[in-house]
Amino acid sequence: MRSMETPDNATEATDGAPSPTGIAAQDWATASADPQYRAAVVDLLGALAYGELAAFERLAEDAKLAPTLGDKAALARMASAEFHHFEQLTDRLTAIDEVPAAAMEPFGKALDEFHRQTAPSDWLEGLVKAYVGDSIASDFYREIAARLDTDTRSLVLAVLDDTGHGNFAVEKVRGAIEAEPRVGGRLALWARRLMGEALSQAQRVVADRDALSTMLVGGVADGFDLAEVGRMFSRITEAHTKRMAALGLAA
């Protein structure tokens, strides 16, 4: 699951926040001396890399359903951007002496299952999935990025850059609803299902990886406490509501 930032992304944790402290103020060379923190970062980069690869594959598949040649070309460009993000992540893993395939492997089953359970039935459902589902993951990773060392944080934020899919999806979905209003009800139900599946999948991935869960709830760097975890998911839910409004759908 991943991976695009949308124009209305409202969960960037660094806005108006105090200056970073602890590991969040260190570079990778210093922070990685902590073996648990290093393991958490390898997990994070592995999960992101697999998500980017899956996004590339899915966009390439969605391009086959595109109704026009222009739409097909637009999705192909977005797929290329996702693959570039994948390469950035695997290059970083190699640079820190990790095997990219080994770092990604623990996340393949869960992410593949998420995509299997949320396979779109048509072009519009595919656009909503990319806009809503992938953006939830993007929000989640941005929250974690605020607790990373400066080098890793810069990389993570770079690969969450908007590929253009957000504005593209909004334009196409709103146009379809204007042309046929009854489509909106079906897509709203689909988006709510995606929200539930995406949050459940994110929670499962973190729960299955000790280093990542420790980073999230406390114990590594300036980790979140349990109350902050609740606030984090509230922020993600609020951003989802804004995206639904941008699509012209009820949350």
UniProtKB/TrEMBL annotation:
Residues 1-12 have a biased composition (Polar residues). InterPro entries: Ferritin-like, Ferritin-like_SF, Ferritin_actino. Residues 35-219 form the Ferritin-like domain. It holds the Pfam family MiaE_2. Residues 1-23 are annotated as: Disordered. It comes from the Bacteria. This is Ferritin-like fold-containing protein. It comes from Streptomyces flavovirens.
